[in-house]
Design a protein that fits this description.
single chain, alpha/beta, FAD/NAD(P)-binding domain, Polyamine Oxidase, Chain A, domain 2, 3 domains, 5-stranded parallel beta sheet, 22 strands, globular, FAD/NAD-bd_sf, NAD(P)/FAD-dependent oxidoreductase
Amino acid sequence: MPKKVAIIGAGPAGLTAAYLLGKGGQEVMVFEKDPEYVGGISRTESYKGYHFDIGGHRFFSKSKEVEDFWTEILGDEMLERPRSSRIYYNGKFFSYPLAAFEALRKLGIIESTLCVLSYAKAKLFPVKNPTNFEDWVVNQFGRRLFNIFFKTYTEKVWGIPCKEISADWAAQRIKGLSLSSAIWNALFKPKAKSKDKVIKTLIDSFRYPKYGPGMMWETCAAKSKAMGVRIEMNCGVKDITLENGQWKVDTTCGNFEGFDYVLSSAPMREMIAHVHPKFPEHAFTSSQHLGYRDFLTVVLICKDEDAFTDNWIYIHDPSVKVGRIQNFKSWSPYMVPDPAMACYGLEYFCFEGDGLWTSSNEELIALAKKEIQKIGLTQESAVVDGYVVRQPKAYPVYDQDYKGNVEAVRDALKNYPGLYLVGRNGMHKYNNQDHSMMTAMLAAKNIIAGQELFDLWDVNEDAEYHEGGDRGERVVGRLIPEKIRN
């Protein structure tokens, strides 16, 4: 008999689960609070025919299952794009990932020598068991390179000192990368066929939908609907209640009941507050201490007078507020309808309600025009139009307490059978799109099988399932059948 499943959030995790469950013959309803867009932070918005991402999303995964899913949804509509990104620091542009010889050359002989000596010191006297971002990066690159290439940008992103950010975030985002690995990569480029061995940060190409990542999720939603999945837009969830082994979901567009499972990719802090019976006090309080970082994108439509080829540029200059600049035409030429024009996205990291967030659109566009000229990417006079997108809860904050807070919630979940937390905000994991999708894939497999074959929390940052250190070969003390492993 088909299971009845409620999915909260139509982002990559929610729609991946919806598609696979619909394909598996289950009865599925998706509740999405956005009135127009699916895809969550992976959506693509548009303005006067120009398309732009909310952050920029590469489609690259070490998981064949994820890559196959993308191909199944979009097929030939996926482009192969060259990866190009740089760092702007002290009036100069540096390749990113760091091209060691270029970086040392542009820093100058004295600063380069000090950086190398600083790196040698970090290797000889590393911080043992680093717990914060600063100590982790210093161990990998040395303190001088940390101060130049990591500190300013990271504190722009998070709004807190690097000492207060967990080392988990560094290990996740720049896994396997150090000054020595950057030099090695410069000398010996990894072969294209050894994709599973490439450090994600060092990839030089990726796939990308012609009209942005939202195209993937709009198509996925349409295909899910064709299989009978019901997707309710402009439908926020108010409460979810477990009664007599089944779930009831109260929303702004009506009340629905009789669900066997609920999958939620909504922010953990918000979701736990809406669950009944209420979570135990310790778990509930822990969930409310989880933090989020918000951001906004100022889109500038410009005459393409000063073209640059980067997909994005990290701005490490403390004299400007912008943190990162996207070049949507370099992501895909189809994003910009007029080849004589360019479309840039200036990203400002902030907290909802602070000075940047509450600035008027006109003020933000004026700021972005001024700062992009100061950086030297184009002139204010080249800008013909602007648009602003605000994104609350873009990033779950990895502060020093986040891990214990999440663990308290995880421990309490065992008392709520059928409730799965999936995706970036659902699990409070600063992950990539493929990780979010893999957690949804495993949840779908559990539901279709009618038993807990996989623990979603054992998906690593490369979207690989590693249970108990045995690479997913064993689950709950028994071997997984071959057909499930594949």
